[in-house]
Specification:
Major facilitator superfamily (MFS) profile domain-containing protein; 24 helices; MFS_dom; 512 residues; disordered C terminus; 2% strand; mainly alpha
């Protein structure tokens, strides 16, 4: 099937939701180091405590956790499309409060409200993309969200580098205000985009769904063979789910759906245990630890980091649907783990660790060993590249494609909430880890990456090239997924034949 330019345009536009999250992630790391911001937040103080830093960062993530859970009923009742609009509006309200903040309390309130919007977008956007995308390029299209996240981070880093020379409150208010623009564009632009065809069929609006499938997959040709086949497959799945009453949260705990829920939650938790958001939130501090002492230099190093993140994310857009999820996830975890372990070991062996009694923190000084300093910086870059081509996109792709239609919004909501909850927890502890166990932080995340590689190899089945309606068969195999890799095609062909005859694998008999 030849895919239309309109399909790519629609998916790229909706992925702006990822830009909002990425920009906020990147901008706060620079803002936290700006002297005018510190003075405003501390009523004239000269530094933020690790706990204040954690709360300013973490309140957004707490809002994201709540927002991702609230998005599920919205997606089901008012549609994926309108949920994106509501989430964009909420995000802009929170961003506006941050821009106008006159103190610490107002700032963290704005961060929480903005988090409600970001959390809802992070759940609704990949859900919408997965239901609009054909199975052959679904990984590519959902990866557009991660690409926009990385672009947002990169833009934020360079904006921060540009405004850090200002001595007034404009140095931090301008970067925070810029994020309002993309969210406003998304909010008004989504009005003109189509509804999810799978949501339309689930609501009994079959003709509209057929028109959407024809529009985005075949230039409006409703007689196209691929469009008709996908349309009929979705209808068959919806009718089956209605027959067995698969619609409540309880169904997430039954049969193969329970397995999917566990794997979906774990992949989102694992994504945070790579340590990536710690690198992004606290990049200037990390580069200072690695030996870059001047503030301007650390911000530029962070900007370069953001550019590398974007370029590396292009790789999965091209190759994810060819290589598959398993290979990408395992290789990415090994690359990241190696980089973090090497960074931590070299820093621990060469750095001078001192204690600052005023701030009650340990400080790392690598200025006396230039080679070791540069090595650690390179390892951070290698780590970011490893994440960008693997766990960055796959962390969103995999959970968005594995659930049955009738509970897809609920399942995606829970897995996304798990991501934000773990993100929140880690963001609270990382500033303390960086100033207490210092280089041990990198060793910790390196070990986590090794565990993740093993878990994917053992338990995660391959989902590339399978339609959303075929996931019942994909997850009907053994829990130890690596044993099914060699004969997956033969087993799938047999399972799909039964599926077409109406003998779905994930039925009430399996759920009993």
């Amino acid at each position: 099937m030849a895919y239309t330019k309109q399909l790519y345009i629609i998916c790229s536009f909706v992925a702006i939701g990822g830009f909002c999250f990425g920009y906020d992630t990147g901008v706060i790391s620079g803002v936290l180091t700006m002297e005018p911001f510190i003075r405003q937040m501390t009523n004239g103080g000269t530094f933020l405590t690790p706990m204040q830093t954690s709360v300013i960062t973490g309140l957004l993530l707490a809002g994201c956790f709540v927002g991702s859970l609230l998005a599920a009923p919205l997606c089901e009742r008012i549609s994926r499309k309108y949920t994106i609009i509501v989430a964009s509006l909420v995000f802009n309200i929170g961003a506006a409060v941050q821009v106008g903040a006159t103190g610490y309390d107002m700032m963290i309130a704005g961060r929480f409200v903005a988090g409600l919007g970001v959390g809802s977008l992070s759940m609704a956007v990949p859900l919408y993309l997965s239901e609009l995308a054909p199975k052959e390029i679904r990984g590519r299209l959902i990866s557009l969200q991660q690409l926009m996240i990385t672009i947002g981070i990169m833009v934020a880093f360079w904006v921060g580098a540009g405004t850090q020379y200002l001595t007034s409150d404009a140095s931090w208010r301008i970067p925070l205000a810029i994020q309002i623009a993309p969210a406003a564009v998304l909010m008004f632009g989504v009005i003109f985009l189509p509804f999810s065809p799978r949501w339309l069929i689930n609501k009994g609006r079959n003709e509209e769904a057929l028109a959407v499938l024809a529009r985005v997959h075949a230039n409006g040709d409703k007689s196209d063979a691929g469009v008709i086949a996908e349309y009929e497959e979705i209808i068959a799945q919806v009718e089956h789910e209605r027959t067995v009453s698969v619609s409540s949260y309880v169904e997430l705990l039954k049969g193969t759906v329970r397995r999917r829920l566990i794997l979906g939650i774990l992949i989102q938790i694992f994504q945070q245990f790579t340590g990536i958001n710690s690198i992004m939130y606290y990049a200037p501090v990390i580069f200072q630890q690695a030996g870059i002492q001047e503030k301007a230099s650390t911000l530029i190093a962070s900007g370069v980091n953001g550019c590398l993140n974007v370029l590396s994310t292009i790789i999965p857009i091209i190759y994810l649907d060819r290589l598959g999820r398993r290979v990408v996830l395992i290789s990415g975890a090994l690359v990241m783990g190696s980089a973090m372990l090497l960074c931590g070991i070299v820093m621990g062996a060469t750095a001078k660790i001192t204690y600052d009694p005023i701030k009650d923190v340990k400080e790392v000084d690598m200025s006396g060993n230039t080679a070791a300093s540069y090595f650690c910086i390179v390892m951070v870059y290698v780590f970011v590249a490893g994440f960008a081509y693997s766990w960055g996109p796959c962390g969103w792709v995999y959970p968005a494609e594995i659930y049955p239609l009738s509970i897809r919004a609920k399942g995606t909501s829970i897995t996304t909430a798990a991501n934000w909850l773990m993100n929140f927890i880690i963001s609270l502890f990382v500033p303390v880890m960086l100033t207490s166990i210092t280089w041990g932080t990198y060793v910790f995340f390196g070990c986590c990456c090794a565990i993740m590689a093993a878990c994917v190899f053992l338990f995660y089945p391959e989902t590339k090239g399978r339609s959303l309606e075929e996931m019942d068969i994909v997850f009907a195999g053994r829990a130890l997924a690596y044993k099914d890799v060699k004969n997956a095609e033969a087993k799938f062909a047999h399972g799909y034949a039964n599926h077409k005859e109406g003998s779905f694998q994930d039925t009430k008999e399996q759920q009993a």
